[in-house]
Amino acid sequence: MQIYMVGGAVRDRLMGNAVHDRDWVVVGTTPEAMTRLGYVAVGRDFPVFLHPETHEEYALARTERKSGRGYRGFVVLTSPDVTLEEDLSRRDLTVNAMAAPVDWDGSPHAVVDPYYGLRDLHDKVLRHVTEAFREDPVRILRIARFAARFADFTVAPETIGLMSEMVSDGEVDHLVPERVWQEIARGLMEHRPSRMFDVLRACGALRVLLPELDRLWGVPQRAEYHPEVDTGVHAMMVLDMAAQLDAPLNVRFACLCHDFGKGTTRADVLPRHHDHESRSVDLLEQVCERWRVPNDARDLAVVVAREHGNIHRSGDLNASAMLRLFERCDAIRKPERFEHALLACECDARGRLGFANRPYPQRARLRSALQSVLDVATAPIAAAAARRGLKGEAIGLAIADARRDALHEWLCHETDNAPRDGGEAGHASA
């Protein structure tokens, strides 16, 4: 029996990156022998065991045979006769198809590298291992996600070609929705998430998986607000700005979806996009249903898509209009979600050519205005209204009046303390 560290742990150690999870492959043994040694079987589809002390996963060396469509269409074969090279051949990328002995000291000379992963690591290339890559459509998503993680790597042209063939063969159509969301969500959290969508677009998978985004490229916007002009380019700049600002997943998803409606603007009215917000909401809700996106991500994306233009132009709102904005966003009940909406709007405003370092005062301003509303003590107002014989909706109106008064006072105070040099930065158009 021989044990090797495999996959991402070897790659990351060779790159000098932190290794958080280690995977192990065991060659030349059986499930029964593993059990006798104290390992605990946990694999459902193939033999995987937990180490009795470290609880790390140890998988028996295996091969796979395609038996149907999609990533579940495989027959897994394990045997003491399966070699390490055969096991590594089923992996996705050459940089993930390296192995090292248990007592590995980190030296590249001790690495088992039958598919030239060390060469590709040095050359910063993401390349498929063998033609078996085409048998699992999830690998298309994984390649795209790795491109977002390793932003200075390129995808080998022959790998892009193979991925394109898989798309043409209909393999992507058989991806399970939950798995698509899982991979997309992980890619959104990488260092440069735009590269995930660049790769998916290059092989044609984006047109199948997310046509709402794919159709944005080539759609123009008004250059005075969007010097980058192209709506698809803007969407990627917004997404990368979210990564630069270390935004959480739900904010990054909202950034991805906020302008979907611009892809359905009639050609005769371009580059203007009247009412694209409502169309964006309709389209992103379809995506959320298709991918089974968690409710918290969907709900924030709806708020951002519908209200980002109003938030950008909030400097023009009076107390009544500002209160209506807060109510539409459910900001009074969910201030944390509203804070996330403001962050997404800042990413939208700064994710434009030449705008990356511009201030976005709307975020701090609306946060402060909302706090003035949250500071209104509603219980005494409700009690006083009840003593006057008011009920239900009438009490709600009395509370709304008090909140509006608080906003009016806040706006007056802001005006009294406004700078005399021209005031707030200009609006960012949606």
Report on the architecture of this protein:
The protein has helices spanning 8-15, 31-36, 84-89, 117-123, 138-149, 157-168, 177-188, 194-202, 205-209, 211-214, 231-244, 249-257, 276-291, 295-312, 319-328, 335-350, 361-374, 378-387, 392-416; strands at 2-6, 23-27, 40-41, 48-50, 57-60, 62-66, 74-78, 99-101, 125-126, 154-155. It is of the alpha+beta class and 430 residues long. It has a six-stranded mixed beta sheet with strand order 3-4-5-2-1-8. Helix 12 (249-257) crosses helix 16, helix 17 (361-374) crosses helix 19 and helix 18 (378-387) crosses helix 19 (392-416). The model is unreliable at 420-426 (pLDDT under 50).
Question: Can I get a quick summary?
Answer:
With 430 residues, the chain is an alpha+beta fold.
Adjacency order of strands in the biggest sheet:
3-4-5-2-1-8
Helix content: 40-55%
| Anisotropy-based shape | elongated
Report the portion of residues in β strands: 5-15%
**What is the rounded distance between the termini?**
62 Å
**What is the succession of H and E elements?**
EHEHEEEEEHEHEHEHHHHHHHHHHHHHH
How many strands, which pairing sense, and closed or not: the largest β-sheet? 6 strands, mixed
Number of helices: 19
Report Rg.
Answer: 27 Å
Structural class assignment: alpha+beta
Q: What is the residue-averaged pLDDT?
A: 92
Number of strands: 10
Low-confidence stretches: 420-426
Give structural attributes.
430 residues; alpha+beta; six-stranded mixed β-sheet; two-stranded antiparallel ribbon; 19 helices; 8% strand; elongated
